[in-house]
Amino acid sequence: MRPLRWGLLGTARINRSLIPALRASPRAELAAVASRDPAKAAAYAREWGIPRTFGRYEDMLADGEIDVVYIPLPNGLHAEWTIRAARAGKHVLCEKPLAISLQEVDQVADAAREAKVVVDEGLMYRHQTLTREVKALVDRGTLGELRFVRGSFTFPATRENDVRLVPALGGGCLWDLGVYPISYARFVLGAEPVEAFGWQTPGPSGVDVAFAAQLRFPSDVLMQCDTGFRAALRHDMEIVGSDASLLVPNPFKPGPSEPVHLLRGGERQTITVAGPEADHLYVGEVEDLTDAVMLGRPPAVSLADSRATVAAILALLSSAREGGRPVRVG
Length: 330
Fold this sequence. Notes:
Elements: E1 4-9, H1 15-24, E2 28-34, H2 38-48, E3 52-54, H3 57-62, E4 68-71, H4 78-87, E5 91-95, H5 102-115, E6 119-122, H6 129-139, E7 146-154, H7 173-189, E8 195-202, E9 208-217, E10 221-228, E11 234-241, E12 245-248, E13 257-264, E14 267-274, H8 283-295, H9 303-321, E15 327-328
Parallel strand pairs: 1-2, 1-4, 2-3, 4-5, 5-6, 7-10
Antiparallel strand pairs: 7-11, 8-9, 8-15, 9-10, 11-12, 12-13, 13-14
Helix pairs in contact: 4-5, 5-9, 7-9
């Protein structure tokens, strides 16, 4: 079976992480890049050695020699172009978050089902050995009965005209960064939150630039996380049980060798998990989508999974708008 021919729908910075992964996969071929500016598409193609260019997104979707479209656009455009790509018969790998409303997720699911194509949300960490090892430790009962999950993802956003601060484009730190600890907690716990509490700090444009979130899961398991564009770089997860706790210092973008720390009775055991080289960090999500297309395997991140993350974020945002009032999720 020939490699899947991929097209990049845009020239976003995140492409530079995916391009090495596409070139590392024997079942993928980076065939084209599209931009709304033909000159920009041509310059980008020369820089990265991409054979074909399109001066309009629509032209890429209409081309019969593109099998898969990668969507790295601003958050508020994800659903629109995922739906348009699916209706054009293209498989889609869309950057997180897949959408910013439940209606959009349902429309994506309808379009994918009707066109018989695969749509996969790009949560790269889900495909890493580190994530699987953490999940296995939890599932084996290493920590005892689960009680609490804590996470963080912050960094100082200093770029002028950053699309992450534009309300109309789905800006805000919870959509951009909160997706990670929230989806991680749901995955590790194997459950969905039932109640949300949120507190936010709005920036000048009105979007949240700092957010403190709390989710209550069944059996009163609690999850807390903070995200934001105003604090120093931080990203970690901690899972706490009745017998022990597990600290994951670098859960979302692991390196070739990552430690996790198991704390039990005042003693710490460090477990080192092997990970990918930097250029291969995104290969897992490429191979996952390829398996779904070629072998009919369900994607690791299902559309139902993506929908549940969106539901949790929407509940948190609703709670924050109402001054921290508890809000049911879903």
